[in-house]
Every structure is written in C-alpha cells, then in structure tokens.
Specification:
Length: 241
C-alpha cells in the first residue's frame, strides 16, 4: 500500500509535521524530519485501527507500507504544527458529498472518544494543571475554540460564548460543522476562501472546504492523543508509593 506524504518543517527542518492525505486527518510530528518520518508508519497503523474500531474499513489492510514523499514545505508561517498558510494540491480538490460524509463520521468518532476518556472524570480535577502541560479542561477549551476558527474561515458560524460547560461548547461547534459542510454549495466545495490569520499575508491565508475538514480531523486526533497521555501520566503518578 502506497501512502503519499506531504511535509512541513520549521527552521532548519526541526519540528516537522507529516500529513498523510490519503487518510485525511492522519499525521505524524516530531522534533526533526527524520524522526517524524520514522513515526509515520506507526501513525498510519494507529489511525487505521481507530477507524476499524468504529466498524469501517478506510483502506485495505496493508501487508507493507510504501511511503512516498511528495512535497516538503520549508518556507512559511507556523511550520511544523499545521501551518494555516499551506494549501496542498489535494486541498484544492472539490469536497464531494460522499467524502464529506465519510470524514464527518471520522470526526464524530474521534469526538465520541473524548468523553469516554474523561467521563467519569479522573480522581484529579480535570481543571488541575499537569506537570509540563495543560489541564484536560484547557485542552478541551482549545479544541472547540480552534475548530470554531477553522469553520469561521468558511463562513457561517457566530462566535460561541466562552462561559459554560466545555462539552456543551464542543457539541455546539460540532453541530455547526456538520451543518456547514452538509450545506456547502457546489461552488463552495471547490472554492478557495481567503481568511485572515495571525501571521498570514494581508490578503489572508487560503482555505478550502477540504482543507478545513482536514485540519479539523488532524487537530482533533492530535488532542485526543494529548488527553490520553495526560490521563496516563496522572494514573502513573497516583500509583506511585
């Protein structure tokens, strides 16, 4: 099975993010390009397992993986962490109704696994900070705030209030995502939207429906792993004598 890899790296090719666009939302990231590429096979296997765990086969199970580097971007803003300035060639492909529905399912499955991890909450309060990282509540707040921004780049979402239950906000933003993607016009499914970013050009960063959905998936997957890591670290500390 051949997977095409699209890389973005920060200065001196240090922090690198490998996008596996054949599996929308799958990525690997590490402190150097070499380490990120070494981690890619494992990231693909984990993503396939996640999809199959929910009863769907994304691609035929590979006996071996052939990883092909297609593009490596080393110039731009916020490289290595999911740069908003990047528009890969595949991001320009029209988002078909079938593709949209498939990837919305994957997004919902990743979201379903969040409450399974943190509810009922661990003995330590989910608002408590963890050594070297954010609290679970801060992670969840970050997820809905950034998803709100991804959707705002396509238009169609009013700002969600910051107060209140974090899971309610996650649900509100996710419902808005489903509604927006399911009601895209034919033109919007292939249109390039220009949206202002924190370090982008004056005319704005380029976004498409496919890119926005890709970043929602990648971002959800990233922080699902972060929450699991926080809980694992917490469990380890509680078991220490």
């Amino acid at each position: 099975m051949e997977y095409h890899l699209y890389l973005e790296s920060g200065p001196k090719r240090k922090t690198t993010m490998v996008h596996v666009l054949d599996l929308l939302g799958c990525f690997a990231r590490d402190g150097t390009t070499e380490l990120a590429l070494e981690a890619t096979s494992g990231a693909i296997a984990a993503y396939l397992t996640f999809i199959e765990r929910h009863g769907e086969t994304a691609m035929p199970a590979p006996r071996s993986m052939d990883l092909k580097l297609v593009e490596h971007i080393t110039s731009g803003a916020l490289l290595g962490i999911g740069s908003p300035s990047i528009l890969f060639p595949l991001d320009r492909e029209p988002l078909t109704v079938d593709d949209g529905e498939k990837h919305l399912r994957w997004l919902d499955w990743a979201r379903e696994e969040l409450p399974a991890l943190v509810c009922p909450p661990p003995e330590e309060e989910p608002t408590a900070a963890y050594p070297g990282g954010r609290s679970i509540k801060e992670i969840l707040q970050h997820i809905w705030q950034v998803e709100q921004w991804y959707l705002k780049n396509l238009g169609g979402l009013e700002k969600v209030k910051r107060t209140g239950n974090v899971f309610e906000k996650l649900a509100v933003v996710r419902a808005a995502i489903r509604h927006r993607f399911r009601n895209l016009s034919g033109e919007e499914r292939s249109k390039v939207f220009l949206a202002p970013g924190p370090f982008g050009p004056p005319e704005g960063d380029p976004w498409t429906a496919r890119k926005s959905l890709r970043r929602c998936l990648e971002h959800q997957w990233e922080h699902l792993d972060e929450v699991a890591t926080r809980l694992e670290a917490n469990a380890g500390r509680q078991s220490e004598p």
